[in-house]
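As the work plan foresaw, our protein records have gained a C-alpha cell line. A representative record is set out beneath this paragraph:
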Amino acid sequence: MGFFSAAREARRDEKELGIGVWRRANDRFSRGLDRFHQVIEGIQDDDLYNALVMMANHLAELQDRVRAVCTSAQAQSPSDDSDIPHRYNAVHRALSKAANDLAMTAQSAAMARLDGERWGYASAGLENVARRADTVGSGVAAAEAALAEAFANNS
C-alpha cells in the first residue's frame, strides 16, 4: 500500500469509526486477525496449512461484520475518547470479547502448528482452534444483537 492510499484509508477510518472506542474495537479485531494469519505463514504440513487457512477465511469474513457494528455504533453514539457510551456498553463488551477470543484462537493455532511440526499430527489442536473460531463468530453475533437492542432502546 502506498503512502497516499494509506492516508486515504486512515481518513476514511477516522470518518467512519472516529478516534474513540469504536475505532479501537475495530483495530483490535484486525490485529487479532493479522496475528492468526502470521501464525499460518510458512507451515510446511499441507493438511494443517489447508485446515488453518479455511479457518482463517472464516475469521476474515467476520471482519466486515465487526466493522459494520463499529461504524453503526459510531454513527449512533459517536466516541472520540476512551469513554464507552453507557447504552452501548454491551456492544463494546461483546466486541472486546470477540477480539480476545480471536487472539486466543491465534494462540491455539500456534499451538496446533507447534504440535504438528513437532509430533507430525495436530488434529486435536485443530479441533480446539475450530471451537475457538466458533466462539469468535458467536461474539460477533452477540455484538450485532446488542447493537440492534441499543438502537431499539435509543429510538
User: Anything to note?
Assistant: The mean pLDDT is 89. The domain at 3-154 is CATH 1.20.120 (Four Helix Bundle (Hemerythrin (Met), subunit A)).
